[in-house]
Sequence to fold (348 residues):
Amino acid sequence: MSQKYLIRIAELERLLSEQAEALRQKDQQLSLVEETEAFLRSALARAEEKIEEDEREIEHLRAQIEKLRRMLFGTRSEKLRREVELAEALLKQREQDSDRYSGREDDPQVPRQLRQSRHRRPLPAHLPREIHRLEPEESCCPECGGELDYLGEVSAEQLELVSSALKVIRTERVKKACTKCDCIVEAPAPSRPIERGIAGPGLLARVLTGKYCEHLPLYRQSEIFARQGVELSRALLSNWVDACCQLMTPVNDALYRYVMNTCKVHTDDTPVKVLAPGQKKAKTGRIWTYVRDDRNVGSSSPPAVWFAYSPNRQGKHPEQHLRPFRGILQADAFTGYDRLGDAANLLI
Fold:
């Protein structure tokens, strides 16, 4: 056999040996990948089982908190307050554990250059602007010492809160006496929302907005004012609310007449828990809602809602509310409306 063929055979044997070694390494890598995949699948199954367990515990705690809150609203027990706080703390810990097992806390940070740019909406144009103009510290060029010329501005806006502040308005009515007789004149006293009251219209509006729009109880508002250095008791705030309700009676009456002066009214009632003085348990009152809205039939009349409260759900209450109404009443199947069906002025 010639030397040429011997060299060729040796080269082929070397290639076969290298391919066999490469196949052996790939088999080892494949085996390692399979072992890693099996381990990850097992870890994933354990994590999913843990997440499901935590989610069941979270739902149980939420239901328990909701039950305790309903009980707390009726009794105001300090023991129940502590139980609610403990359950909420446990719920928060469970949610954090669930986030940790699911990997929501350990997600890799996206590089800044790969993030999608967010188009921030401009701040409302109607808000007042306070301009802070910042001049460069350098009076000349830091590179060559040359004179600096105006080029423009780089602006950025920041939304800030101007907290409400209490102030005292002192009204001094000047008195003057006649130099020829004993006549004395003085400026008339300005009117006040509440006669002989210390609250101005802005403060009264703040209390009513906090109570009915922001759901701030009067005792919390009293604490807020106390932190501002003014002691306003809960009883005083309650008296202000009552006085404002009396002031709003003409508006309420006008709204009632407007809602009832139509051919169709929608109505429904909602239960509301009421804490009566001297009673340990909460009672269930009713908020009756009467809606006038004819926009779906092309009417240009503005929609309106009138509310009424009653301590119970007896049928006499809607009967009294709807006494001046003439038209069609859209309501549910509450039996209290049955007595209204006999009236000649109503079609239910």
The chain has three domains: 11-102, 195-247, 249-347. The longest helix spans residues 3-75. Residues 11-102 form one domain. The chain has seven helices and seven strands.
